Amino acid sequence: MDHLSPLRRLIQSHPLIDSHSHNLLNRESAADYENYPLEAIASSADGRALENARTALPSLRAITQLSELYDLPCTNWKDIQAAHDLYVSEDYENLIRKSLSGTHALLLDDVLSYDEDIASSSWHDKFTISGTKRIVHIEAMAEATILQVSNSRKNGESVWNSFRQRFQDALGEALDDANIVGFKSEICCRTGLDVDAYSSDDTTLGGSLIRILDSGTTRSGFAVDDKHICDWIVQQTLKAICFKKRAGVVKPLLFHTGLGDNRINLLRANPACLQPLIAQYADADIVLLHAGYPYTREAGYLASAYPNVYLDLGKVFPLVSREAQVKVLRESLELAPTNRLLWGTSGRFHPETFWLANRQFRQALETVLVEYVESGDFTASHAMKIAADVLFYNSNRLYGLDLTPSYTPGE
């Protein structure tokens, strides 16, 4: 018998906390490929770039592995679509249940929770052991707040004062909501991660808000894409997090970093840009999402140098090749403490994104940890603790979930 069998078994079967993912489509929208292309399961590209992605290694690997999920032979994306259609029409919930097998709890970044195509956060509870928790998107919160104050100018009120107070009140309510366990910023996709540690003056911020109001309507909405405002939103969130932490309420701020679509400026997506902000708000727990890819070493360095920084390894699974996934894990482990590593699928829309991410992450984790044990870097017992921590306990501790995994080691 392989002396590493217990380690392999634990990695492949230990329950996991999906510490960052998004809502699934409801059944009525699950086959709406015009708005939710199925090929996006294995790529963050869109439009014509998504057509090219079908020939990339992650897409080819996904075809092979999804055949196992569907229990149907698939050789191309037409086969994948046919199998997906079959499940959606006949047993969509079973497809979701299979895709979320082994998931103890979901922490959903529900920025799209008001979209009629998206299933509610609570609807996901039927597929996991523990209830779903929410992660609030702060830029979406700000856009909703701007919509509320859009008529303030007509009433002769100070738009900036009204927005500032309403946004701070919304932050306070979210911090007091037990169902909300964290916040998420996509400033990376808007103005970049080079966030100023100190806010601009009220005159500058007020002028920025007026420009945002002038660029949208109550019908189209208002896009928060001004650097002064975006930086302020992040700063205010971190200040509120630090204040609440003194009272024992711990809720981290998650940053989209690195890997994304064509909205990002790749140079300003480097998590190293956040270093001054991380140092300024040392009492706030900060999570760097997507392993910072392709800046994984920079992200790992920050997690090693700052005790308030965590590194979430999601989204690179299944969006990059198998070799790249293994490399991401190795680079993350170069410096980052293993108690600062988290696992979240970043799955969204289609249940297959969750299944592929979890399956490929467990495969890569087994490859890397077994190699380290066989090389004598640490023992199998150490490796088993690392695996259980990354899959479950680190997220359980950071987000204050107080969950107990239903895992029994095999003989």
Automatic annotation (TrEMBL):
Residues in Amidohydrolase-related domain copies: 252-347
The keyword Hydrolase is assigned to this record: yes
Keyword tags: Hydrolase
Domain of life, source organism: Eukaryota
MF terms (GO), sorted A to Z: hydrolase activity
Record InterPro entries: Amidohydro-rel (IPR006680), Metal_Hydrolase (IPR032466)
Name listed for the protein in its UniProt record: Amidohydrolase 2
